[in-house]
Every structure is written in C-alpha cells, then in structure tokens.
Amino acid sequence: MILSPKHLPRLAAIVGLFTNYGLRDFAKRQGLLGLEGAGLADAVGEAEGDVAAKAKAFRERLVELGPAYIKLGQVLSTRPDLLPRPYIDELEHLQDDVPPMPFEQVEKTIEEELHARISKLFESFEPESLGSASLGQVHAAILRDGRSVVVKVQRPNLREQLADEIEFFHELAVFLTEHTSAGSRIDLIGVVQQLERALVDELDYRTEARNAAMFRKDLATFPHILIPRVIDAYTTHKVLTTERIRGVKIDSIPPIARIEYEFGELAEEFAKAYLHQITDSGHFHADPHPGNVFVVLPGRENPRTPAELAADDRRQVVRPGATALVESENEARALAVAAPPRDDPKLALIDFGMTAHLTGFMRDHVVRLLLAMAENNGDAAAETLIEIGEPREDFDRPGFIRDVSGLIAKHANQTVEDTPAGVILYDLITMAFRAGLKLPAELTLLAKALFNLDAVTRSLDPSFNPTESIREYTSEIANKRAKRDMSPSRLFQLAAETSDLVRALPHRLDVFTQKLVADDFAVRVDTPQLGSLLLGLEKVANRIFTGLVLGGLLVASGLLMAYQRRLGIIGFLIAAIIGLWMVGTILISDRRSRKRKGKNVG
C-alpha cells in the first residue's frame, strides 16, 4: 500500500513527534525514519536532554494538535510496547486543558438538542463552566424539581473535524504494518481501531449514559459505591445530564477526615467492585484515575445509591420503566443490598467514556492470569499469556516462560509498596512484545485499570494491599466457577452432549470403515512452514540444474575448439553469460534474505 499524497505532511508530522521529543532512536529501530515521504531519514540527531522534560513536551504537543491526538495519547498510555516508560507515565496524566466555549454556543447546543429554551429547562444554569476539554465542557445547573445536576455539552462540528483524522490514522496503520518492523510485531491496526472506538463512544453521549446506567446496576451490590444517575430526558448524543457529585478528589482527602473515618474498608470494597467488573460482567471502567473518583463525606448534599433509594421506597409494586435507562434503575434497586449507615463515607465514580469489554474466553484467562500473579506462579502466568496471545514465528517460548517466572519471582521478594499489579502487568506486556508475542489490546486496558486501581486504593489507605484482594477475589471466582461446572444443570448438559456423541458414533464408525475398504482414506498434515521449505528446495534444484547445464556447455565448447573454433567460442560466451547470471542472482537473493532477517530481528 502507498500512503495518499494528501497524508504525507501528516506522516512527516507524526515522525516529527518522535524525532523532536526524545524518541528518535525508538523511531529508527521501528523503521519510521526511512519511510518515503517522511523526509526525516537524514535529519540531524536529537539533542541530549532531560527525558522527563521531553516526555512532558511530547504530551503538551499532543494537546496542541487537537482531540484526535489527545485521544491517541490516551490510547498510547495503555501501550508500554510502543513507548518507553517515562512517556507512558507522562501520558497517564494527559489532560486536554483548552479554552472554554462561549456560553452563547453552549446555550445554542442545549436548546437545539433539548428543543426548549434553557430558562424553561432549568431552574438555574451556571454560565461559567466547571471544566473544559477538547470534546466538550461541563456546567452546573439545577432542574425544575430542585435536583442539582451537571450538564456536559459537546463542542460543535467535532465529527467533521475528526473524520479526516481517523481516515489518516487508518491508512497510516496499514502503511506502517506493511513497511516497518514495528508493524510485524504490533497490532497497529488494532491500536487505531481502539482509538476509533474510544472517539465514537465519547462523541455519542448516549453511549456514556448507557455505560453509567450499566455500572450503576452492576455495582448495586456494593453499597458504598455511588454512580450518579443519568437524567434521561435531558440527555442526547451531544448533551449529557447527570446528578451532581459534591465530594473531594481521592488525592485531596483532608487529614481530619482520615482521623474521623476508616478508609481501609472503603478501599477493600472499591477493589472488589473493580474485580467484579473485570471477572464477572467483563465490562469495566478503563480509566479509574484519581481525577474520576471522589470521596463523598456525610453531611453534604449528594445523590443516593440504589440501596438507599430502595430502602426509602415504600411502593408495593414497581412500575416498568418507560425507557431503557429507567428500567435499568429499577433493576439496580432490585439488586441492591442493605443500605449502609448514613454517616458512612462513600466513593463516587464519574466519566464513563472509556470502557472495555472482555469476552467470556478473555474473562476466564484473566482470572487465571491474576490468580497466577497474586500467587507468584510465573510459569502459569506465562502459559496463560501465550494462550491468549499470538506468537510470531521467532517466538522463544522457553525463554519467555523463564523471563516471566524471573519477573514474578523478583516482585515476590519486594515490599507491598513496590509491587502494584498494574505495573507488573505492564512489564509482562512489554516482555511479551520483545519476545515476539502479540497480545490483545484489551489486556493493556486491563493493565491501565489495575494501575489506576492501585493508585486509588493507596490514596484511600497507604497500607492497603490490593494484591491480597486480587488473590482472595480471584480464588473465590475460580471456586464459584468450579462449583458451577459441577452443578446439576451443567452435568445434565454434559450428559446430553455425551448422549449425542454416543448416538452418532455407530454412523461415524461405519463411514470410517467404508472409506478404508474403498481405499478412499486420506490424512492431511498441515505444516505452515512446508511452503517455504519446498520453495527453498526448488531454488536449490534449479541452481544445481543450471550448474550442470553450464558444466556440460563448458566441456562441449572445449571439445569443439579443436574442430569448430567459432562454435566453441560461441559456447564459451553463452557459458560466461549463464555463469554471470547465476552469480548475480545468488548475490541479490542472499542480500534480500539478509535484509528480511535483519528487519525481523529489529
């Protein structure tokens, strides 16, 4: 594939991001500097400087380039196989701080989306924003019924602006996959698809609304976890209205509150709630960084959890919800456990734009992986990663298992503070990349979630050990699944499947014996490398045959020189041409093979 000419300036800009901000050597190793059209193959080497300063400048440059690149940076923050650790750490704090929209534009968007004047929709609406980002901004408001809410409004014309950027990223991913060494090791197309899904989800606020409602229902069994309720009638794909959380950021808890309240149990419940998302439903909040988690202290006006609402609900019969979101709220209250005491602190989660889904296959393997990591079983962790990954031809399985076991053993001997699960998983992903094992993108989102989970729980309680919670919860999940497999319904299913096999067995044996009698039985052996082997043998045979022809021609020409000198000279000339052609072909072929081998090693 050839990159479209209109995208060549952007290609140069992308490569410039690496060469100008301390990543030139990385770009060179991945084959980016020699790309036709990049115009940077002969550029002067990057200046020496502080790595942290360059990583910060790299993050700031992404913000300047706009929302598509900001989201790209957020995706890259989950990919330690693409960027060095200092850059990953810096991108973890990527915030798109941009000038706010004029209030006139906010008002226009709300009135167009909700089909009413803003003064009719709200009792009051704060013109000054609570926060502004590249995709939208948030305002505080009060509904006509007195509820405090926050209203997120999308910036105008975003879809048109981002469509061209996404097209470029798609084309670039295919181009790099075909022309760089990085493309043979990393699922670049998958990275772009992950970026596109994140942007599509964040551009449609109804998706975030559904995510919030789903998490509110899934976490209803954790009474101290508060997910603000979505105001359905005030939500469209460009406007999102939710209940307002009044709390303190997780990293700004007042010292007096730490004396008055015990946050260790809150950290434990939060960790189990997150593990429940990952291992049970498979749908988890992929970005639980401290800015998205608030401590809700008693005495302040705040929304209520499904458990609190269910405890206060005196209705004998619950009416079916008029919309999917209302019905989801009814289900959340039905699932809720006993409400906690009124003077207990709670944790509130906001911003559900970045989420991840795990298939049943991935959930089962993630449970095994987390349990192996928690129990310091490096061999089991390595085998699980191999099962969910895609090994390359040069993948060194014994070496990878040995390296993973060494990494797990090293962390087993360190203190709790030095062994966050997210960091270990990041290291395992990087190790797999270097060994030639391509892992699914969902695993990097899981590492990001575990990394931020560790940060949140330690902010609540510095002595909290999330690894112990992971060990206990994954063991509990594994036991539940083992009991489920031995349940009467599962045994009945196995019996039915066995019955089907036994019923079909006589017919299959009859077909098998008929083929044997008719001499129509064949065995197919699938050998992926057989084609390359046959091609190599064919090349050897061709060279031997050409050598024999050349030898015979030389002998015949030598004999003719005594009787037909002219024919002998012609024979020698033909032999010389054939010989030169053979030597040239061999040299060119060997040089190409060395280049391909060097590219795969790099």
Instruction: Compute the average pLDDT.
Output: 79
**Rg over CA atoms:** 32 Å
Largest sheet features: 5 strands, antiparallel
Q: Assess the beta-strand content as a share of residues.
A: 5-15%
Q: What distance separates the N and C termini?
A: 22 Å
- List low-confidence stretches: 36-48
Structural class based on helices, strands and sheet pairing: alpha+beta
Helix content class:
55-70%
Tell the overall outline: elongated
Total of helices: 24
Q: What's the total count of β strands? A: 13
How would you describe what is shown here?
The protein is α+β, with helices and mostly antiparallel strands and 602 residues long. It is built from 24 helices and 13 strands. The chain has helices spanning 8-19, 24-29, 51-65, 67-76, 85-91, 103-114, 118-121, 158-179, 181-185, 188-203, 205-218, 255-260, 264-281, 306-312, 324-335, 360-374, 378-388, 397-412, 421-435, 441-460, 466-485, 488-517, 530-560, 565-601, and strands at 122-125, 131-132, 136-143, 148-154, 225-226, 239-243, 248-249, 283-285, 293-296, 346-349, 355-357, 390-391, 437-438. The strands form four sheets. Strands 1, 2, 3, 4 and 6 form a five-stranded antiparallel beta sheet that branches. A four-stranded mixed beta sheet has the order 5-10-9-7. The chain has a two-stranded antiparallel ribbon with strand order 8-11. Strand 2 and strand 3 (136-143) form a beta hairpin. Helix 8 (158-179) runs antiparallel to helix 10 and helix 13 runs parallel beside helix 21 (466-485). The longest helix has 37 residues, at 565-601.
